[in-house]
Amino acid sequence: MRHTWREAFSGLRRNGSMALAVIVTMWVSLSLFGVGLLATQQVDLIKGRWYDRIEITVFLCTADSSGPNCTPGQNATDAQREAVRAALEADPEVQTVYYQDKEEVFEEFRQAYVDSPILSSMSSENMQDLFRIKLVNPEEYASVQATVSEMPGVQAIQDLRQYLDPLFEWLNLGRWLAVGASALLLGAAMLQIANTIRVAAFSRRREIGIMRLVGASNAYIMAPFLIESLLAALLGAALAGGTLAALQQFVIIEKAKPAIQSVQWIGWDHVGIAVVGLVIVAVVLSIIPTLIATRRFLRV
């Protein structure tokens, strides 16, 4: 085993510039791949909270609401609320109706603005109870709006998709651009690893031939090359993991979360998942080209 590690480090020293190029390429490509993974998790996080279960929100009147269906200084009554619920549930275009009272709305508000000083001045009484509606066909928004828009106790109707769709389009575009660019760079990294190992194996072809003649196994001969490529790939993955950690700390936590507090942002657990993905990809990308590059030198 000592011989294997000695040969691996000797190969890295002899091909230092090529190994450095592999590490840098893996660093950049895995960082882009990790950004794509984080973007995917961010999109899924937002969709899981809003998009997949909510299509229309019906806001009920409060004491300070204005509108033709609201009585000034009065909340929507229980009778008005039940009438709106019955109308929604009877509509064939409505699949599911979720009702949230002021306490539940305030709990969501508290989670969204947990780090904001505004939270100390708010309470459930400042909230507005509402119905969240999932449609059978999202395009049939107008019919549901016509059903309840003129009913007493309804202050406003909001179609959340008109606000969420542009956001998801940009997030998905950024995700696929990052994944596409990382795929090209990861392909380049594979070629660099293959060339590095091929040069190292060619320079040691006599030693390999002697080891084959004395009965050394293929695994024993390939081990130094595998360790060499694995070390370079894992160094690139470690640098990419550090890049993702810096992105989480300095961009998400310190910039994005204070600026947009109504969005649930990814956390360190999501970064951990992305880093595990980077390591797996790095290991696979180092092993496959090494096996291919050394195969011809194992025949004597």
In brief, what are we looking at here?
The protein is an alpha+beta fold. The protein has nine helices and four strands; from the N terminus they run H-H-E-H-E-H-E-H-E-H-H-H-H.
List the helices and strands and how they pair.
Elements: H1 2-14, H2 16-51, E1 56-60, H3 78-90, E2 94-100, H4 102-112, E3 130-135, H5 141-148, E4 154-159, H6 161-203, H7 205-213, H8 218-259, H9 268-295
Antiparallel strand pairs: 1-3, 1-4, 2-3
Helix pairs in contact: 1-8, 2-6, 2-8, 2-9, 6-9, 8-9
Describe the structure.
- Helix content is 68%, strand content 8%.
- It has 300 residues and is α+β, with helices and mostly antiparallel strands.
- The chain has a four-stranded antiparallel beta sheet.
- Helix 1 (2-14) packs across helix 8 (218-259), helix 2 packs across helix 9 and helix 6 (161-203) packs parallel to helix 9.
- What's the number of extended β-strand segments? 4
Structural class designation: alpha+beta
**Separate helix tally:** 9
Provide the gyration radius in Å.
29 Å
Percent of sequence in beta strands: 5-15%
Please tell me what the overall shape is. Answer: elongated
First-to-last CA distance: 23 Å
Average pLDDT taken over every residue? 79
- H/E element string? HHEHEHEHEHHHH
Strand order of the largest sheet: 2-3-1-4
Query: What percentage of residues falls in helices of 4 or more residues?
Result: 55-70%
Largest sheet: 4 strands, antiparallel
Low-confidence segments, given as residue ranges, are none
